[in-house]
Amino acid sequence: MVLDQATVLELIDQLRVSVPDEVRQARRITEESGRITERAHEEGDAIIGRAQEQAAQMLEERELVRAAQQRAAEILDRAQDEAKEVRRGADEYAAGVLIRLEGECIKALTSIKRGIDMLDERHRPSAGGDGASGADAIVVDPEEQAQTARRP
To answer: Model-level pTM?
Structure first.
């Protein structure tokens, strides 16, 4: 098989001309692929960064919520303790006032009883008995006494 030299040179020129186009096209495709890959890595890194920031923020918010709940529980416990102490103090004060009032009432009743006894003594008939002093005795109707006691 004999090849014509002109034909072979023409084929070589065509290869030389067409190969650089294909090589350039392949190079462009490779470069474009590299840019796409690089952009994908950048976007992936950005997505991962945002996810990490959100996770950190959520953890921080959760920690803040937990700390606020704990603080609220402490405040509530302290308020309940203080309320118990105030109630205890109020009960002690009320008991003291009532005890003093009871003592004053007992003194007043004792004084009233002595007054009634003294009046009764004055108006009792004497043992020597002339009968006239008996007319001066005070007679108290129990029903009238109960009505008088109910008046304001």
So the answer is: 0.42
Give, rounded to a whole angstrom, the gap between the first and last alpha carbons of the chain.
150
Quote the CA–CA distance of 19 and 137 in Å, as a whole number: 152
Q: How many CA atoms lie within 13 A of 3 on its CB side?
A: 8
Give the Cα separation of 63 and 1 in Å (integer).
87
Amino acid at the residue 111: S
The answer to whether residues 147 and 133 touch, using CB atoms and an 8 Å cutoff, is no
pLDDT computed for residue 1 by the predictor? 65
For 96, residues 6+ apart whose C-beta sits below 8 A from its C-beta are none
* Residue owning tokens 């009968």: 131
Q: What is residue 8's three-state secondary structure? A: helix
Structure tokens at 17: 């001309």
CB 122 within 8 A of CB 137: no
Instruction: Quick: pLDDT tens for 90-139.
Output: 999 999 999 999 999 999 999 999 999 999 999 887 655 454 444 444 55
